[in-house]
Structure prediction request, 265 residues.
Amino acid sequence: MNLLVPSANDDGGFHGPTINEFFPEVIFFADTPFEINRIILIRFLAVAVLLVLFWVGTRRMKVIPTRMQSLVEMGLDFTRVSMAEDLLGKKDGKRFLPLITTVFFMVLFMNLTGVIPGLNIAGTSVIGVPLVLAVVAYIAFIYAGVKKHAGAFFRNSLFPPGVPPALYVIVTPIEFLSTFIIRPVTLTLRLMMNMIVGHLLLVLFFAGTQFFFFTVDGPFKLFGAGTLIFGFIFTLFEVLIAVLQAYVFAILTTVYIQLALTEEH
Prediction:
């Protein structure tokens, strides 16, 4: 099913994108816990391409790298230097580098499926993947804090030192919500909503282009050129958003781990 077309109805009018596009029909294993639809297949494809690229780029490492090896090494150096080691230091950065690298590239490749012709929807535009990755980041945050500070982690997170004891009745619920509830929720929603909005706008532009070019008559066809231009411009912008959201998700995961490791706990 091509999602970059308007809804087909007998009235010949324009019908823009709807939220139903994020709930496609089941393709395999209907009425079972293992139902697979179009978006899940896109997720499988994104992960498969990611694994193949890294396998090809690292299977025969050379002193003088090939182009694919150089590309993979640039990506790995980016997550290692700009995220892990920059925020966590060399020791802790090395510990959490596999997690940070996996989060960044998984989000990136699934985001980019939203602008690939024939796929046209991001694997992160439905809550499953963003929620799972946010839970992984949340678990890593708690693990890092408990591992580094043992029992003091939860105590200092919920009862910050230096606060008058009488204020804990106000401060502790706020700290609990902001630290242990809001963080994974905002990680999930920030990524998912950006991908949803980007998809809807792309569909709107290109559906409008098809409508003006092939349905309306007269000078109104010229509007199709405008929606086509805006569609291509927004496609480039959506690529930027895909990269930026992958970076934001990975960097926030790293920041949360850094906060758990700080001496204040």
Summary: The radius of gyration is 23 Å.
